[in-house]
Design goal:
This protein has eight helices and 39 strands. It is α+β, with helices and mostly antiparallel strands. It is elongated. The chain starts with a helix and ends with a helix.
Length: 617
Amino acid sequence: MFPNFAALLVFSVLCLLSLVTSGSGSSSSSSDTLNDGRRNITDGQTLVSAGGTFTLGFFSPGTPSLRYLGIWFSASTDAVVWLANRDSPLNDTAGVLTVNAATGILLLLDGSGRTAWSSSNTTTTNGNNSSSSSAAAVQAQLLESGNLVLVRGTGGSDVLWQSFDHPSNTLIAGMRLGVNPQTGAEWALTSWKYPTDPSTGDCRRAMDTRGLPDCVSWRGGAKKYRTGPWNGLYFSGVPEMASYSDMFTNEVVVRPDEVAYVFDVKPSSASKPPFSRLVLGEAGVLQRLVWDPASKVWNVFAQAPRDVCDEYGRCGKFGLCDVNTPSTLFCGCVAGFGPVDAAQWAIREASGGCRRNVPLDCRAGGGTTDGFKAVRGVKLPDTDNTTVDMAATVGDCRARCLANCSCVAFAAADISGGGEGSGCVMWVGDIVDVRYVDKGQDLYVRLAKSELAVNENRRGMLKILLPVTACLLVLACIFLVWICKFRGMRSRDIQKKAILSASTELGDENIELPFFSFRDIVTATEDFSNDNMLGQGGFGKVYKGMLEDDKEVAIKRLSKNSGQGAEEFRNEVVLIAKLQHRNLVRLLGYCIHGDERLLIYEYLPNKSLDVFIFGLK
């Protein structure tokens, strides 16, 4: 009974102080600090950072009766970036946040005076217990960065605790995602359980430092996605990070007490930088969101995983995923390897991975005939089973891998200096989670000599076959063009000779008369349209036509019933061709197509002579 009475007494005093401080006007509710002048905030009151970017207060994301203490972007109240009591919500609006005068720590108390959350539950930033500090000199402040800090002294230089060390599901500029190798402390993201329930969910985003630094998403105890190792410029599976350099800076800090990823946002103009946040969703999808102040919405700038090949280990050990392949399997094997179970691959199940076609040659004395095949443009494999030496050269790396019978692949650890890179990362055992990416890195896979010879022979054959094939195709095209041209010329000669050669008197005459194709005639007359017919008689019909050069012609189509045979048609062609005169209609050409016989004359738009002689209309 006595402890409960003491707690109620403390709570009553705190509430009284709250009433006193809240009566000082609106300035107290908009302050960014809890100190001697203002030791607590109650539900309905807030702390606002000096520049107004962030707000700390109580809110309900789902059930109104459940209250949480959190920090959010002031411009977007639903963009919560940190939570204090995510797994212990308050059941009413009687909660209060205070700096405890006796211990110098932050306390969140419920309506009964019980502690719902405390900053003493976590390790302090400088490794010291905050209770050892002077209570009167401790204050809490919400910084413009969105970081809630508990500091000793008026200058605020001695940080005892900060919210940035305890992320929820969101990473903002200046926060860290990583570990402290010395203490084991970790800065990781954990998803909400549901969109309206901020309690700890199943998904987690953390830094894996067992090889090269690599950001990994987990669901329960299973890896779901990884960015690929940091290569000095970007995570090897996310090379597009380099193209974001005009908006964001990305850095992986490696120190004895910290291995962490940090990003910052660059100003786009003289104004302050745009708001951005990385949010781990309930299903494990990580999204980079950027605030658009004009439309007041968060735009999805990027997200991961992006596609099926981002699924961790989709193609199994020594598998290689390619999202651009026409196959719905998306999986293949690294050169020198084949599927472990071809039947499984046939039913689109490739998680069993691949195995070597030929065993490696590694002798007891250290000799070997093995070599390396470069796999270009990939996300480097999981580095859990690797050896890393940042001081080695790529040449050193190759030699060391050959000398180690367990080494199956190597790559440059850092490509920030250009060229082939520097540093050495060597894989021992299997390699897993490799995929093609634009502007990816080179991975050198160890193969037996015979496999390398096969690849070299194939490359040599391709070097010979490709140019030979190209030459043959060019020659074939030239031959086809020549054949078509020759046949066309011969067809015209045959048709022309068929008309003229039978005439013993005129067949040997040198008559230059063009031959028109039937297709051109059909086009010119719009398929012998009645609208284009100029007249008809016992010989057949005459049509008006328009040739490709916009020249108008009159086309005489001889009727099959006219009684005019090949000899008569031949005589007419030769005779009219010989009788060309300025007062006679000029014959421009002829056409024979099957049973069709046509004569092409110049078109006279001024009607016929009988109209002018007899005044006919």
